[in-house]
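Quick start: read one record
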Amino acid sequence: MVEAGNQRLASAGLTERAAMRHGDAHALPVADAAMDAALAINTLYFWPNLAPVLDELARVLRRGGRLCLAFGDASFMRSLPFAADFQLHELDAVELALRVSGFRVSAWRSHRESTAGNDGQTREKHFHLLLAHRR
């Protein structure tokens, strides 16, 4: 997946500005303050404890760097059978963890949409999108 993503970046002429890497979220293969932005979409469910991962993201982001998090609302995610073993985080807990790790939340949006799931049932999906800046 990483290789395919980097090929797409190359095709778009973006290799000077962006790269995809595989790594452990607790020990990112990036130097201190080396990144301008980080994006984590639907990954919080695999972080049992937010603090060490957010601390690591703060380490690799330059001062003022942006972090965008997108994740399903905990109550919505609980309704999904495949998410039974996911670590679900409430919005207020994520916001607090960001502040403790040295981020300032600058924007938040709640997104809802009704779509058919894999089982054919219509569900209302509820997601949060947070933009935070490293202080």
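Strands lie at 35-41, 61-72, 103-116, 122-134.
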